[in-house]
Amino acid sequence: MNFDKELNTSGMSCPLPILKTKKALNEMASEQVLKVISTDRGSIKDMQAFADQTGNTLLSTEEANGAYTFYLKKK
């Protein structure tokens, strides 16, 4: 998937992945896509809840080798 910015939060635990995702999205333009990489299992539920609460779109969630990749489109 094409993306405009990548954020790697590997090794960080809640709430840091969400806080860093929020900061990164604030620096982006509307409709741009942010790729977030996380190793925190809780980030699966957290990213969906974050997207629902902020109005951003969670385009995709992938899991491979203990890492989770999320693609969020800024509203």
What does this structure look like?
The chain has 75 residues and is α+β, with helices and mostly antiparallel strands. It has a single domain, classed as TusA-like domain (Translation Initiation Factor IF3, 2-Layer Sandwich), CATH 3.30.110. Helices cover 31% and strands 33% of the residues. It has two helices and four strands; from the N terminus they run βαβαββ. The protein has helices at residues 16-26, 43-54; strands at 5-8, 33-38, 57-64, 67-73. It has a four-stranded mixed sheet, covered by helices on one side. Strand 1 (5-8), helix 1 and strand 2 (33-38) form a beta-alpha-beta unit. The longest helix has 12 residues, at 43-54. It is globular, with a radius of gyration of 11 Å. 23% of the residues are buried. The mean pLDDT is 97.
Itemize the secondary structure elements and their pairings.
Elements: E1 5-8, H1 16-26, E2 33-38, H2 43-54, E3 57-64, E4 67-73
Parallel strand pairs: 1-2
Antiparallel strand pairs: 2-4, 3-4
In brief, what are we looking at here?
The chain has 75 residues and is an alpha+beta fold. The chain has a single domain (5-73), classed as TusA-like domain (Translation Initiation Factor IF3). Helix content is 31%, strand content 33%.
Write out key terms for the chains shown:
75 residues; alpha+beta; Translation Initiation Factor IF3; 4-stranded mixed β-sheet
Q: Largest sheet, if any?
A: 4 strands, mixed
**Count of separate structural domains:** 1
What's the mean pLDDT score?
A: 97
Number of helices: 2
Q: Give me the CATH superfamily.
A: TusA-like domain
The CATH topology label is: Translation Initiation Factor IF3
Order of helices and strands: EHEHEE
In one word, what is the shape?
globular
Question: What's the alpha carbon Rg, rounded to whole Å?
Answer: 11 Å
- Report the end-to-end length measured between terminal Cα atoms: 18 Å
Helix fraction, binned, reads 25-40%
Q: Provide the structure class.
A: alpha+beta
The CATH class, by name, is Alpha Beta
